[in-house]
## 1
Amino acid sequence: MEFISAVISLIIILNILAIIACIWKIFQKAGYPAWAEFIPFFNIHIFLKMIGRPLWWVGFLLVPFVNLLVLLVIAIELARSFGKSHNFGFGIFFLGFIFFPILALDDSRYLGPENTLDHW
């Protein structure tokens, strides 16, 4: 039983490290400082800047259930800002451990928030 717990813990830690590396790369691709991902709330500010949303959207993230909708919108607009489809944004939201590495490691380029606002 302890062995299984250790293996599960190791898998979780490796997943967290992989997501950290992917967000680091995504910030770099978008031209933002990669170290910003480690600063609470500032990293959210960077994501909001990447998709062209105002800082007061952080308040929505503090409201239960509303935060899920806002995170979905952020995921979709993040995908759109890299030239991906809204379906890719759903993938980021529901299967981030698969779609964050794809976004970080593929040859997509950051197109900016102008690319996200035209599609709503």
## 2
Amino acid sequence: MRNSTRQLLSVVVLVLMCSIVSAQDITGYWEGMLRITPSDSLTIGLWMEQDGDSLQLSLDSPDQYTMDIPATSSSWQDSTLKWSVADISAAFTGRLAADGKHIAGTLKQFNKSLPLTLERGHERKTINRPQTPQPPYPYREEEIGIKEKGGRYNLINGTLTMPEGTPKALVILITGSGWQDRDETLMGHKPFQVIADHLTRNGYAVFRYDDYPQAVFTKSTTFDFADGVVMILDSFSRRQDLAPLTTGLLGHSEGSQVAEIVAARDKRVQFVVTIGGVAQKNTDVLLYQVRAINEVSGKLTPEEIDNSVVLSDAVYRAVGKTKDPKQAAAVLRQTMDRLAEKLTAEEQERYGMTLENRRAQASQMSSPWFFNFIRFNPKSYIKKMRCPVLAIGGEKDLQVDAVANNQLFAKYLPKNRNHKFVVLENANHLLQTCTTGSPEEYGAIEETIQPKALEIITEWMEGIRK
């Protein structure tokens, strides 16, 4: 009888302990190290605060200079924390330890599951972005939604900034490759918010918008994005305050190609600004990136860089010969497997040609977007652009060769005395003042965009108004 009582008492004590742990306050900052590979790790931060009966949670990735990603869902029950972030396809489930100082669990993202232990006691990191505009603003902001053709949901959501008085012109900002929000947020930088703020303070109306909802975006191509800009033009042409305005497009990177397509087809586009703009074939741009970024990184020898370019070229050519994305997926797997067979395990690792990487790349490169992107040649569209063009790029841009592309813009564009081609010294793909131009520097640089670049844009726009 004594033993039974002791066992029952133990159970009661255990239940009480669990209840106490579950009731513990877990608000505040937690941090852990995510081991992606034996040699590669990523700091994960978690900020939690109580809002009434609900738990508000945001995710930090300070190593990637990305902070305050809001959780799509979160729950805290029976000592178990669960949260998910839909935008990055990430989900976590973890349990609070008895000491109340550790939450051990698993982070799932895409098809990977990795252990992650979060602990208290760390100081939350901060990043400095001095150019990001802060309210109050000396202009009016208006949230705008444009529905898809069936009227079921907003295909386009954005912010229109309007200066006091009649705007000098209307500028529509178009983001680069990959899903982007209206500010083109990257590593804590908000280039499009900075540009919109600068232009609006100088008397211009500016519209910046999020890319399509994810479900639509994953099935879309550069031409679909161009259709979205036409929808914006159609919508604004029905507004009395915007319809009379001179209208231009400002596109960054792939956004420049979207602008080229629309400007070639639609006379309502009366000027175009390209930042890191593309006039080359996209295959040439991609191969330039492979060589330029690897040369700066120092991770590969010159011979290995040459080999990497050859491997990439073979893969792009294979995609280019296929008839549709489904065939491209099969051909890509076959091509990359064949190329990988010629490499040692160590070489596969160095060239990013491991089986896991090959499968991920094949999936990405057989998407509708990449299938069309690899075939796109801006030349035929640039030749039909009758409006003035400002092409501005960075001397150290390792994603788009500014000199080569500006030369092609000058060659292909119909003659116009207002065209201007600028290469900024010591500037990268974002037009930040940089050291090497490597994408790895983007987050470490506090400057979002060179003030000189902003001045060049406004001065040129003032010039073409005269």
